[in-house]
Amino acid sequence: MSSVRLRVAVEAPQHSGLTGPLDYLAPRALAPGTLLRVPLGKRELLGVVWPAAAAAEPDAEDGTTAGGHALRAVGEVFEALPPLPEAWLALVEFAAGYYQRSVGELALAVLPPELRKLDAPGLAKRLARLIKKLDAAPPAAGPAPARPALGDEQRAALAALAESAAQPRPAPLLLHGVTGSGKTEVYLHAAEQVLDAGRQALVLVPEINLTPQLEARFAERFPGRRLVALHSGLTPVQRLRHWLMALLGRADIVLGTRMGVFAPLPRLGLVVVDEEHDPSYKQQEGARYSARDLAVYRGHLERVPVILGSATPSLETWHNASVGPQPRYRRVTLAARVGGGALPRVRLFDMGVLPRVNGQAPVLAPLVQQSMQERLARGEQTLVFLNRRGYAPVLHCADCGWKSGCPHCSAWRVFHKGERTLRCHHCGFTERVPRACPDCGNLDIAPIGRGTEKLEEQLAELLPGARIGRIDADTARGKGQLEARLAEVHAGDVDVLVGTQMVTKGHDFRRITLVVAANPDSALFASDFRAPERLFALLMQAAGRAGRSAADSARSEMWVQTWHPTHPLYAALKRHDFAAFAASQLEEREAAGLPPYSHLALLRAEARDAEVARAWLDDAAAAAAALPGADGVTVYPPVPPPVSKVAGIERLQMLVEAGSRARLQRLLADWMPQLHGLRARHRGLARWAIDVDPLAI
Length: 697
Known about the structure:
The protein is α/β, with parallel strands linked by helices. Helices cover 30% and strands 20% of the residues.
């Protein structure tokens, strides 16, 4: 029997120059999407049979190509697994092309680690045994819970979704709902309709800490249905098991973070992207894909409806749902809170009118402290938001000017008082706090600035007897710590909750009636053009934690302590007017030629010596200028990012801008082979990468 030539995608590093699938010999034809092991060099790797020329005959009877190269034979085939769906292969192919990565690199990176790392013989048999075990644990059935009555706006949203789903190509639905307006209930009803039709639902959330409560809501609503989670917090075995249930069609609902967008679902009927504006949907390492954007493309590819839910949509999404007589997205608004509750009153306090003590501004303005004490007297809760963890951003010696810089990064090491350490939040380098200044021996080294740890300590002094709790990345590191701390808040065992952005979104705190933004001004004048958008979203989400109970909403408030009370951002925040804020920001973006009115990519280079990275980027710019598609594309000079050195590696980046997405993509596709070739001429270059649609520049 003659051999069959297969194209197989393997996980080759980006800088190897291997951009497409490789050719192998197999004793028989294998369907595209089949998982198998193949040799590459001296290793044997996991591979995926790719559609292009999937069953072509070899060029010669002995299995050699026309160029005289001998094709190697494939290894073990995972017969127990069905091939990955055709739509999954198309999604990966699109993502690899758009984000300028190799097909194999992306395809294998989004598969469970257990499949990629286990190269021992017999893995296919172990998979077969695991699949049999999946059948041994059917979901527990139970009575369906009582459902809350839908409001008029929620029913209108579901009607719009049904109308869109009936179209040959359903348009994405932007569910613009204020905090507490019942967006999750819309998701649940939409999922129910899909499940009743025998289809699967994919629900994406931006962060792992939001999955437990949403998972509990779906599990309660759908007893007897199989619900699985996909995120990096799972053990490798759990992640493999859940992925298998999705692939085999045995999971009815898949709830995941950004990696969930690549869940193989043979019966997909609905995609939900909750908090669609959240920057966590953008992958920042390897293939820098946007899960939100890929979710929209996946809906288009598989002709299923996509719901993008947010109280503060990204400006790109808002633009797609607002511009032109027939916007690309359909927008539905939920303007009222469930139960008729009111949004919290937003009040600004001008911190500039307060006297400083030893050069420091007070922790709380008098009116803010009074509002907190009133809540304590009534047994209500307060959330104090400060988006900076640790005790203080830096330690300082007043005698010689020494500061706690990181020796490996262009950043300060943060003082963590509870651990008595200085820790770099970029590279992780940690040391004990010195007893004296390392430069001059001065014993009086002091913290400058304030983080959540220090704020917690100061609030305990200002509010004696109050039970202060803190939730940030330091207090929620261990397994189960976040859930335990959230349970304390829900149980009423915390009077004042201090937290970072971890607690400002998605959480339904029923007893919180006051939110205090302690120091939000730093993002107002940042160099990143997206900083105001992110700040407004954070503050709107934080405000939404107050007054979730309709009975308490009338007296719910948000205090913003600011040195810039007349800033237009705060004026829109006081009115809860996202539309006005978005209009002003889009007007500024259009005048400046920024997204969504232009399309960007960043070429990043890293080296021990910054001049090596700069020289490589200069050569890359010269190569781009010589390409046929360079007209209409601007390549800016290399500049360092805000943190230019991390873990001893210098970083530079070069912005590429075009008015047309297609023009930018053509240039990048032509540029990539030249970038691979340029690396050989710059031996000291550590890494380089292209980031399409970057979140920060």
